Amino acid sequence: MSVITTERLRLRPLTDADTDWWVRLHADEEVNRFVGGYTQEQAAARLHEIQQQWDRRGHGLCAVELRSTGQVVGRCGLNWWEQFGETEIGWTFARAHWGRGYATEAARAVLAWGFGVLRLQQITAMIHHDNTASSAVAQRLGFTRLREDTVLGRPCTVHALARDEFSSP
Ligand SMILES: CC(C)(COP(=O)(O)OP(=O)(O)OC[C@H]1O[C@@H](n2cnc3c(N)ncnc32)[C@H](O)[C@@H]1OP(=O)(O)O)[C@@H](O)C(=O)NCCC(=O)NCCS
Question: Does the keyword Transferase apply (predicted)?
Answer without folding.
Answer: yes
